[in-house]
Design goal:
The protein is α+β, with helices and mostly antiparallel strands. It contains 2 helices and 4 strands; from the N terminus they run βαβαββ.
Length: 93
Amino acid sequence: NATAEVSFYIGEPSARGKGFAKRALTLLMDWGFETMRLERIWAEAYAFNEVSIALLKALGFTEEGRLRSHVYRQGKRCDSLMLGLLREEWPAR
């Protein structure tokens, strides 16, 4: 189907906010669209993870759907957002 899911996690708190995830995702999107010739890359983010959602949107991902009360995290039910990026939406970098 020429699609792929991307996931990322910066576990070490001291490494967060330094642009590592953005740089890694940029390289991965370039590789996926240019080398692998993917047509679509998608990601899932929990609704409470505003930082990850903002990063994905800054990279051009669009919210495509919301799975309501999909997962149990941090002691409560929460939504899961599905975000997608199409090849034609990814600018050459």
